[in-house]
Amino acid sequence: MMKFANVIGVSFMAVLLVLLPLLLPAVGLNISLGTTVILFALAASSVNVLLGFTGLMAFGNAAFFGVGAYGSALFIADVNANLILGLIVGTVCSTLAAAIIAPFLIRRRGIYFSLLTIAFGQVFYFIAYRWSNVTGGEDGFSISKPPIFGGSSPTLNGSSYYYFCLAIFAVLLFVLWRIMRSPFGLTLQGIAQNEARVRYLGINSDRFIFVALLLSGFVAGLGGALYSVSIAFSYPLLMDWHQSGDFVMMVILGGVGTIWGPVIGAAIYAIAQNVLSSFTPAWQIIIGGMFIFFVLVFPKGLLGLGAARRRREEEASQDPDVAVVPAGLIEGRQP
Amino acid sequence: MFLPKRGAAADLIVIGASEEITGVYAEPARNEIRGMQLAVDQINKAGGVLSRQVKLVIEDNANNPGTAVEKARKLIQVDKINALIGTVNSANSQATSNVCLEATIPFVDTGGHTDSVTGQQCHWTSFRTCHSTWMETHATGYSIANKLGKKWYYLAPDYAFGHSLLDGYKDIEKKLGVTVVGEDLAPLGTTDFSAYLTKVLNAKPDVLIIMQQGQDLINCLKQANSLGLLKRIAVAGPQGEIENFWSLPKEARVGYWGFEWYYKSALVTGKNKAAADFIKTYTDLYKQPPTARSVFGYVTAQQLAAAITKAKSTDAVKVSQALSGEHFQGLWQGDAYYRDVDHQLIWPMWFGQVRGDGAGGDEWNIFEVVDSQPGDKVEKPADDQKAVCKLNYPA
Amino acid sequence: MTANANAAPFLRAKDVALSFGGVKAVAGVDLDVAEREIVAIIGPNGAGKTSFFNALSGFFYPDSGTVTLRGQDITRLRNFERIRLGMSRTFQTPSIFAELTVRENIMMGLQAQANVAFSMRGLGARGKELAGRVDELLDFVQLRSMKERQVATLSHGGQRLVEIAMSLSTSPSCVLLDEPTAGLAAADTTRIMEVVRDLHDRLGLTVIFVEHNMRFVSALANSVLCMNRGKVIARGTPAAVLSDAQVREAYLGSEEIVNV
Amino acid sequence: MIEHLAPEIVNGIVLGAFYAIIAIGLSLIMNLTGTINLAHGSFMTLAGYLAFTLMSRGSNFWFALAASAICTAIIGLVVERLLISPLYKRVPLYSLLLTFGLSLVFEEVFRLIWGPSTVPFSAPPELSGATQIGDVFLPTYRLFIMVALVVVMVALLVFLYRTRLGLRLRGAVQDAEMLAALGTNTQLLYMTNFGLGILLAAIAGVLAAGLLGLGPTMGNDLLMPAFITVVIGGMGSLAGSIVGGLLVGLAISITTLYLPAASEVIMYVLMAVVLLIRPRGLFGEEGIFG
Asked: Which tens digit of pLDDT belongs to each residue from C217-248?
C-alpha cells in the first residue's frame, strides 16, 4: 500500500519525466540532455543499490557503466546492428564484469571496500585505454545508431529514444522498488544497518553483497549500453574514477537510499554541468563547490531533507549527525 | 533569459564552436577560438554572409566526448546553428562529427588529427582543416630524409596514437629507402627514457624520431640532453605544437619538428599579404603571435563563410558541396582545398628546428623553418582514400 | 545439574584463548554445557566474558583451543554457519535494525530460516506462515502491540526484547545472552528475567548468559562460571560460586555484588 | 645488461619511494579518521606550483622546497579544520566525497592561476646531469630524490617511534577511542596526523615536479598507483606502504626493460595476485578496518 503522499510524488515525477522533451526546449535545453539525465540516473541508481540499500561505499560504478557502453557498442558495430540485442550484450558484459571483481570486493567492508572499488574500476578504464585495437583507445569508438530490432526496423532518435530510455528506466525503477520490498531487499537493508546482526541471524551476508554487486553491475551496464547508443560513441573516460565520483555525488545530491534520489541528483548534476559550462570556464569549481556544500550542509540530499524531518519528529531524540548509512560501513573484525 | 530569440535566427548565420575550453587542451582551444572570432569579426565588418551577420556561439566540450555530443546537440537544437566547427581532442572530433551527420549539419574539425575523421569514419557533412596524422608523418618523413639523413630510429608511445604515427613512418620509410636501426615503444607516462636512449646511442642512427607527446616528450628531451645524445644524433618528430614549446624550459626546446604553420618564416607565408595582415591584426589584438591553432580557427571560419556565400544557402548539402573541392588562397604560400574524396584540407606542412631563445628580439620566435612539403604529396592518394572513405552524400 | 560424563556435552569449549595486540583477553577457558542447562558467566568488567562469548559464537576466532557443538568442531566455522547449527546470541548493547519496524526485524531471520531470503519478489504463500511466526515470537516477548513501530523508537528494554525475539527467529537450540539486563530499570529487569526463564522452561533451550545482576544469576542459573583476567576462577552452583572467597575478592568493591 | 638494469632499478626505487611516501600519508589519514583523501594528489600539485612560483621569483630550490611544503601543510590543516573535521562523526563516505569535490576545485583553480599546460619547472643546476658509479651513469636528480625520500622516511619513523606525539599518534591510529578515554586531545591528533600526511605529500609533490613535469593533474596521476600501493601493502601498515611502494615501483621499471607493453598493467596484476593470496594485503593487520 502506498501512502497518499507517495502517490502524489510518483505521479508528479512521472508527469515531469513524460513531459520533459517538451519542457527542456522551452527553457533552452536540448532533448538529449533529458536522455542523459535518465541514463545517469540509471548509473546513480546502480550506486544506490550498493550505497543506499546495502550500505557499501562503492566508488567504481563507472566501470560497469563503461563496460556496458563498450559491450553494446562493439556488438552493434562488429556483430549485429540491433539495438535490443546490443543492450542485452552490453548488460551481460557489465554483469559479468561485476561477477569477476565481486569475489575480491566482498571480503572487505568500509573504506577498504571503497578503495578496492576505485582500484578495480581503474583496471577497466585502463583496459579500454590500452586495448586500442578493439576499443579505439583514447580516440574512442564510434557507432551508427542501430535499428531497434536490426534489419530494416526503425531507428530511434531524439525524443523517441528518450521515451525508449524512459520506459526502460521506469520498468527498472519499479523492479528496484519491488526488490527493496522483497525479502532480499529487507536483508540488504539489514546489512546496511547492522551487518553483524544479519550474520547472527544465520545469513551469509557475503552472498547477498555478491548479488547486490551483480544487480548494481546490471543496472549500471544497462545505463551505459543505452548511453553509448545515445551518443553513438564510447570512450575510456566513461570508466574513470572521476566519473564514478560524479555518479556517487548524484546519489548524495538527490538523497541516498531513496528510489527517486538518484533521478533528482542526476538531473541537478547534468543540467548544472551543461548550463554552467556554457557560461563560465570555472564551472568545475562551481560543481566541486556544490559537492562540498551538499556534503557539509545537506548530507541527506534534497529528498533526504523531508524524510529526515519526518523521522526526527517520530523519534524521541537522536544525534543530529546520525549516519545516513549507518553501522555496517565500518568494518568489524569478523571472520 | 539566456535564450536566443528564435526570430533572430533567420537574420543571422549562426556558427557553433565546440572547444576544449577547460581541461588539458585549454590553450590550443583558446587559440582556435581567437582565430575563429577574428575571422567572424572581419566577415561581419565586411557586411556578413548573404548580407546576414554571422554569430559565433561557443560551447565548452570539457574535453569529454560525452559532453561534446551533448553540446553539439544543444548547439544544433537550441541555438539552431547552420554549421559547427572546432575540437582539439580527436575523440571529441569524431564524436561531434557523428552527431553532425545525424543532424545533417556541416562540421569542420579544426584541430583533431586522427585519420578516421577523414578516413574510415568520414561523413559527407564533415571536413577537416588541420593535417591528418598520416600527413604529419609523411611530410616530416620526406623532410627528415631530405635534411637529416636516412638512418632512423623510432621511439613511440605505446598507445593508439603512437601506433598510428608509427604506421605512418613505416609507410614512408619504404618509399624513401630508409634504414631503420631500431624501434621502441615506451609506455605512456614513462618518466625515465635513459634505457631507450642508451640503446639509441649504441645504434648510432642519423636521426631519432620521437613520437611522444606532452609530458613524455618533455621528459625524453630533457634526458636526451643530459645524456649528450643531442650533440651526436639529430632528434625529430611529427608535430611540434608551438604552445607546448613556449611553456618548456629552454633545455627542452630542441630538435626538428613538423609544423602545421608558423608566423615568422618566408617559407611559410612568403609574400602572402593576407597572411601578413592576419599576423599583424592578431598579434595586436591578443598580444601574442598567432599559432597553427589560430590559423585552423581562422581559415575554418573564413572558408565556411565563403562556402555559404558560394552556395547562396545554408542548406547542408549545398554548403558541403560548395566547400568541397574549392581552391582558395590561405594564410600561406600556395593554394589549398578541401578535397572531394574525403574532405581533408590539402595544404603544405613545414619542418624546422626549435631553439632555446627567441630570435630577432622576439621572445616568441623560437622556430626556424628549413623545409616544406606540399599537401598533395604527403596525404594518402585520393584513389586509395576512395576505398576507405565513403562520404555518402544524400541523393 | 552437571553434564553427563559419558555423552559428549552439548557445547564444549576447551582451552580457548584470545588476545588483542598482546593483551590476553581470554587465557585458556574450558566450559562444558549440557543440553537444556542454564549457565551464567560472571566476573568483573574486563574479565574477558564478552571476548569468550565472541570466541564461542564466532565473532572472532580464538587464537587457540576448540569449540564443539554436539560433538562437532565449530572453532573455525563462520558465525552465520553456527547459527544454522542452532546457536544464537544477543549483544551487550542490543544489536538490532534500528530503522526497521519490529516486524521487519523479526522477519529477517525467519526468511533466512525458511530459505526465502534470496527471493526478489514477495513472499507469496509463505508470507502468511511467516507472519504467523512473527506474531508467535512477539507474543512470546509480549511485544505484539509494537509490531509496526520503528525499533529505534522503542525503549531500551523493548529493544532488548526485540533482540531476544530476533535471536529466536532462527529456531535455535542454544541461546547466548550477553548481559541481558545491562542498563535496565528494575521492572524491565524482571520482565527480561521471566522471558529468559521461559526460554528454558517453555521452549526447552539451552541458555548461556553473561550477567552482573547476581539476583538474576542465582534465581536462574543451574551453574555459574566466574572469570577474572581471562581465566576461570570458580565454577559450580550459584550458591557455591557466589560464596567463593576468590570470587568475592575479584568483585570486592564493585557494586554488582551488593545484590547478593 | 647491468648498464640497462641499474638505471631501471634506480628508477624503480625512486618511483617506489614516491608511491610509498604518498601511500604512507594516505594510509595515516585513512586509518585514523577513515578519510580516503582524494585531494591528496591536489596537495602534491599545489606544493609543486608554490615551489615553482617561489623559484620564478628568484628563490633557490632548497628554500622553495621547504617553504612550499610547509605552506601546503598549513593549507592542509586549514582544510582539515574547516571542511573535513566536521565530518568525522559521520560515515567515511562524506569525507571521501568532500575531498573528491575539493580535488575538482583545486584542479580548476590550478588551471586558472598557472595555466592549463605544464609549467617549466627545472631541477636546480647542481642536481642536473648524471653521476657515474662504476660503469653506470645515473641521473643525479634521481639519486637525490632517492636519498631525499629515504631521509624523509627515516625522519618520519623517528617521529612516530621516538617522540611522544608520534607515539600517541600511533596509539591513536590503533585505537582512537582508547586514546580519547585516556584524555589525549583527539582533535589535535587528527590535525597533526592530517598535517603530517599532507607534509609528506607536499615534499613528494615538489620533488616529483622536477622529475615528472608540473601540470594541473600531476598529483592525481600519482594518486592511483599510491592507492594500489596501499591495497597491496595492507591498510594501516607503514611497512606495508614502504614495501608495497617499492614492489610496485620495481615491478614497473623492470617490466619496462624486459616487456614494456606490460609495464602499465603489471601494477593491477600485482594487486589482484596479492589480494587473491592475502585479502588484507601484504602487511595488513587486523585493524579497525580489517
From this structure: 988 999 999 998 889 999 999 989 888 888 88
Chain A nearest CA to B299, separation (Å): 24
Ranges of chain A whose pLDDT falls below 70 = 1-3, 305-335
Do residue B358 and residue B220 come from a single domain? yes
CB A304 within 8 A of CB D95: no
Task: Show Cβ contacts of residue C130 under 8 Å, excluding neighbours closer than 6 positions.
Answer: C107, C110, C111, C114, C116, C123
Nearest to A235 among B65, B74, B159 (CB): B65
3-state secondary structure of D110: helix
Return the domain boundaries, chain A.
31-240
Residues B239 and B97 in one domain: no
In a domain, B329, yes or no: yes
User: Is B385 contained in some domain?
Assistant: no
Domain of residue D195, CATH code: 1.10.3470
The predicted-structure confidence for B289-318, as pLDDT tens digits, reads as follows 999 999 999 999 999 999 999 999 999 999
Decide if B227 and D215 are in contact by the 8 Å CB cutoff. no
With beta carbons under 8 A apart, name residues in chain B contacting D222: none
Residue A172: how many CB atoms within 10 A of its CB?
Answer: 18
CB contact under 8 A, A178 and C123: no
With contacts defined as CB-CB under 8 Å, which chain A residues touch D289? Answer: 110-112, 330-331
Domain extent for B70: 5-131+268-344
Task: Evaluate whether residue B384 is within a structural domain.
Answer: no
Q: In angstroms, rounded to a whole number, what is the distance separating the alpha carbons of residues B297 and B40?
A: 10
A 10 A CB-CB count for D133 gives 11
What is the C-alpha separation between A43 and A52, in angstroms, rounded? 13
Count of structural domains, chain D: 1
Domain count, chain B: 2
- Report yes or no on B383 lying in a domain: no
- Does residue B26 sit in the same domain as residue B93? yes
Domain that holds residue D205: 2-117+132-277
CATH number at residue B339: 3.40.50.2300
Spans of chain B, pLDDT less than 70: 1-10
Give per-residue pLDDT as tens, C168-209: 999 999 999 999 988 888 888 889 999 999 999 999 999 999
To test the contact with chain A by mutation, choose from B77, B80, B89, B165 the residue with the greatest count of A C-beta atoms within 10 A, namely: B77
**B242 and B365 share a domain?**
yes
If asked whether residues B251 and B312 sit together in one domain, one would say: no
Question: Which domains are delineated in chain C?
Answer: 7-86+173-260 (3.40.50.300), 93-171 (no CATH)
Q: Which residues of chain D are within 8 Å of residue B25 when distances are taken between CB atoms?
A: 116
Contacts (Cβ under 8 Å, ≥6 apart) of C204: C36
pLDDT recorded at residue A27: 86
| Local confidence band at D181 (pLDDT 50, 70, 90 cut-offs) | low
* Domain end marker among B322, B344, B366: B344
Nearest to A281 among B22, B65, B76 (CB): B22
SS3 C39: strand
Cβ-defined contact of A289 to D101 (cutoff 8 Å): yes
Instruction: Tell me how far CA of residue D139 lies from CA of A43, B215, D17, D145, in angstroms.
Output: 47, 18, 16, 10
Q: Which residue's C-alpha cell is 637525490?
A: D144
Q: Of the candidates B319, B344, B369, which is a domain's last residue?
A: B344
> Would you say residue D271 lies in a domain?
yes
What is the dihedral sign for C-alpha B331, B333, B339, B344? Answer: negative
Nearest CA in chain B to D12: B192
Q: Residue D180 has what pLDDT?
A: 63
Could you tell me whether strands A141-142 and A233-234 are parallel, antiparallel, or unpaired per DSSP bridges?
antiparallel
Q: Chains B/C: 3 or more C-beta pairs closer than 8 A?
A: no
Q: Percent of chain C having pLDDT more than 70?
A: 93
How close D116 comes to chain A (CA, Å)? 12
Best to test chain D binding among A57, A294, A295, A329 (most D CBs inside 10 Å) = A295
